[in-house]
Amino acid sequence: GITPWPTLYHWDLPTAVQDRGGWPGRSTVDEFVRYTETVVDRLGDRVDHWITHNEPWVATMLGHKDGYFAPGIADWRPALRAGHHILLSHGRATASIREQVPDATVGIALDCRPAYPASDSPGDIEAARHFDGYRNRWFFDPVHGKGYPADMVEAYHEAGRFESGPLDFVADGDMEVIATPLDFVGINYYTSLAATPENQEAESTPVEPGSNPPPGYTEMGWAITPEWFTRFILRVNEDYAPRAIVITENGASFSDGPDMSGQIDDQRRIDYLDSHIAAVGEARDQGALVTGYFEWSLLDNLEWVAGYGQRFGIVHVDFDTGTRTPKASYRWYRDRIARGW
């Protein structure tokens, strides 16, 4: 009864490809398409739904602009080239999948972070607009045929973030390929941002990540704001008119462990999921074409640069023994999804 939705790329570029230039190099687009063809050739008879990339913003900005994620480059110029080539590879891979499996549904999972002004000051209002362009519109706009947002192109050009001129990495026909129609757009949502000039280009957290967050925050230091989830879904539905919206990630990090009886009471996660699933339901009630929801995640896992310290799973994993223990949220989620929307 399990329907697979494989993701072709979740930041795991082979070292050999990185050594040949990685995503800042245009040849990586060709290598990604060949890889896609190989995977689909092997699995296409058993897979109906495909996601080309997960969170290209992370690979672009955290991996190439901030140097926080692999490959550890901290330079705007290769970052913007890398992001463009990731999106270009998405468009070409989408067409390739449809050639091999004509009835397949294909989409991309885009992470988002809605921004609102931290105050009514002009600086904060402008910061919210800028952060939205940097974090959201730079990826949502081109895959929906709107090109790169003009205000951000101008801002990046004025800041000297292109090699020789605005969008100098875009070749003829690229934007049409990037805008290859989607069967669905995936939205990954965790939190929003109170924007100020200081955080308008940063992945900041309002409180320090840790195991004892104040009420209203997860252990990642993220504010719990389901109302902005509803607003963002409705905005995507209105601004881009996608064929369908799938919530491809949504969840919370809390490190609740087994009690003396071996039970794991992670009520905070249950509350988070309950409020956010309700937020999706509210968007659906207002007309958003949301057709699916994936909770992040089934298992506690290696949470990238956060290591094993951040636990998103509804199943607890003892990383020393491998023992897996369903949490209270596991049983709650089982019963919740059985009811449908």
Layout of helices and strands, plus pairs?
Elements: E1 7-9, H1 15-19, H2 27-43, E2 49-54, H3 56-65, H4 76-100, E3 105-111, E4 115-117, H5 122-143, H6 150-158, H7 174-178, E5 184-188, E6 193-195, H8 226-240, E7 245-249, H9 267-285, E8 290-293, E9 315-317, E10 324-326, H10 328-338
Parallel strand pairs: 1-2, 2-3, 3-5, 4-6, 5-7, 7-8
Antiparallel strand pairs: 9-10
Helix pairs in contact: 2-4, 3-4, 8-9, 9-10
Mean pLDDT: 98
What is the global morphology?
globular
Within the CATH hierarchy, at the fold level, what is the topology of the largest domain?
TIM Barrel
Secondary-structure element order, as H and E?
Answer: EHHEHHEEHHHEEHEHEEEH
CATH architecture of the largest domain: Alpha-Beta Barrel
CATH superfamily of the largest domain: Glycosidases
The biggest sheet, with number of strands, parallel, antiparallel or mixed sense and barrel status, is: 6 strands, parallel
Report the end-to-end length measured between terminal Cα atoms: 19 Å
Which stretches of 5+ consecutive residues score pLDDT under 50? none
> Going across the major beta sheet, what is the strand order?
1-2-3-5-7-8
Count the beta strands.
Answer: 10
Give the fraction of residues assigned to helices.
Answer: 40-55%
Task: Indicate the CATH class of the largest domain.
Answer: Alpha Beta
Question: Taking Cα atoms only, what radius of gyration do you get, to the nearest Å?
Answer: 20 Å
